[in-house]
Specification:
The protein is of the alpha+beta class. It is about 25% helix and about 30% strand. The chain has a three-stranded antiparallel beta sheet. Strands 1-4 form a two-stranded antiparallel ribbon. A two-stranded antiparallel ribbon has the order 5-6. A hairpin with a 5-residue loop joins strand 2 (about 55-60) and strand 3. It starts with a helix and ends with a strand.
């Protein structure tokens, strides 16, 4: 299995989890076009005493264009240093444009990242 297969599989899983949060439904299913993963902070990799692990839940707004607007950390375990990579990753996500009843729509969703080296 190649890295692109793994990425595609992970993206489809993330898309299904996000679709479960959409209510009322959109005109077309929520489609995740790009979903880069968070990068684990390199300064934590180099410090053997701080190999932090944890979950970071990010709330984010999807604009009608499909781009991500505001983001915020809802909860996080482990180091606070893991929060920024999670929000940075979500800001780079791209979705197909959103329509509900033929009108541009916005959504606020949440996603939890498992952060580990």
């Amino acid at each position: 299995m190649t890295e692109s297969h793994v990425t595609s599989f992970r993206q489809k899983e993330d898309e299904q989890l996000l679709r479960q949060q959409v209510s009322p439904p959109l005109d077309t299913p929520l489609t995740l076009l790009e979903a880069p993963l968070p990068r684990y902070p390199s300064f934590l990799l180099n410090d053997t005493s701080k190999k932090a692990r944890g979950d970071v839940t990010v709330s984010f707004e999807i604009m009608p264009s499909g781009l991500v607007g505001t983001t915020r950390v809802v909860s996080g375990t482990g180091e606070d240093a893991l929060h920024k990579p999670a929000t940075d990753a979500v800001r780079r996500w791209k979705f197909a444009p959103l329509l509900r009843n033929g009108e541009p729509a916005r959504l606020v969703l949440q996603h939890t990242f498992r952060m580990e080296p």
